[in-house]
Design a protein that fits this description.
alpha/beta, 6 helices, globular, 12 strands
Length: 259
C-alpha cells in the first residue's frame, strides 16, 4: 500500500468505507435487489453513536440495523447493549487506527470460519481466499481464518446483493458475545472491479468483522501503539489498489490479538 492514488469513477462518496468521490469505497449490510428505505434512527441510540465519534449524517437505520459510513453494520439490539452498559467510545481526532468496543473472543479469533454463498461470483471467491491468506500471513497474532463448506459451521456468511447505491461491500462488527461479525455482503454492481480492488475490499471488510474501524475517521477506541498517520492502511474507507498491509495495519492486529 505504498500509493495514495485512488480509483477514479463517476460515482460519489457515500462514506467507513465503501463509497466514492472519484474513488471506490467499500462496506454495509444485506439487502435484496434494491436497498430498503432508511428508517428514522432512534434519537437515544443515535445520540450514543454520535458521542462515540460517528457523524450523524453517516448513520442510517435499515431493518433494525444501523449502517454507518456506508459499510459498517451494527444491529440495533447491539447498540442498545452498548447504551445499557454505558460503553460510550472516546475518540482522539489526532490518531488513526481505531477498534470497536467488542472484539472477537480468544476462543473464536484463532478459528474464524467463513462460508461463501453460491451466489458469490468466482472472481470475488478468488479475492476472498486471497484475503484469508493475507490476514493469516500476519506474524505475531492469534488471528486465523478459514473457509468452510458448511454454512452451519461458519461464523460469517459471505453473500451478494445488488444496490444502485455507491457501496462495494459491507460487513457486521463483532457481537457482544465475542463472535465475529456474522455477515458480509458484496454489491454485484461492482463485479467489474479489477482483482486488486476486490482483494482490498474483502481484506477491509474482514477487518470490520473482527473489530477494526476506519483509519481516516475518528470513531471508537484508538489502538495504542499504532501510528498517528497511516493513509495507505487497508482500513482506509476508500478502496485502494491492493499493495499489502502497512506496518500500522500489522501493528493493530498484533496489539488486539497477540500471539
Amino acid at each position: 500500500m505504498q500509493t495514495h492514488q485512488k480509483m477514479q469513477s463517476s460515482m460519489t462518496v457515500l462514506s467507513i468505507c465503501m463509497a466514492f468521490v472519484l474513488f471506490f469505497s467499500s462496506c454495509q449490510e444485506e439487502t435484496e435487489k434494491v436497498s430498503p428505505k432508511a428508517e428514522e434512527p432512534t434519537d437515544e441510540l443515535v445520540s450514543f453513536l454520535v458521542k462515540s465519534g460517528f457523524n450523524e449524517k453517516d448513520i442510517e437505520l435499515e431493518n433494525d440495523t444501523y449502517v454507518i459510513g456506508g459499510d459498517i453494520l451494527i444491529d440495533k439490539s447491539e447498540v442498545e447493549k452498548y447504551v445499557a452498559n454505558g460503553t460510550a467510545l472516546e475518540t482522539d481526532p489526532s490518531t488513526e487506527h481505531y477498534r470497536g468496543y467488542y472484539l472477537v473472543s480468544s476462543s473464536n479469533v484463532s478459528n474464524m470460519r467463513f462460508y461463501i454463498s453460491s451466489s458469490v461470483p468466482s472472481s470475488w471467491v478468488t479475492a476472498i481466499y486471497e484475503a484469508v491468506d493475507a490476514w493469516n500471513s500476519v506474524n505475531g497474532t492469534s488471528l486465523y481464518m478459514s473457509i468452510t463448506s458448511s454454512s452451519s459451521n461458519a461464523h460469517t456468511t459471505i453473500t451478494t446483493g445488488y444496490s444502485s447505491q455507491n457501496w462495494v461491500a459491507r460487513a457486521y462488527l463483532p457481537t457482544s458475545n465475542g463472535r465475529p461479525g456474522y455477515n458480509m455482503e458484496i454489491n454485484t454492481r461492482y463485479n467489474s472491479l479489477s482483482s486488486g480492488y476486490k482483494k482490498f475490499t474483502i481484506v477491509h471488510e474482514m477487518g470490520h468483522i473482527f473489530g477494526l474501524y476506519h483509519t481516516d475517521q475518528t470513531q471508537g477506541y484508538f489502538i495504542n501503539g499504532t501510528p498517528s498517520s497511516d493513509p495507505n492502511s487497508v482500513m482506509n474507507s476508500y478502496v485502494l489498489p491492493w499493495n499489502g498491509f502497512t506496518n500500522g495495519d500489522e501493528d493493530a492486529v498484533q496489539i488486539l490479538y497477540p500471539d
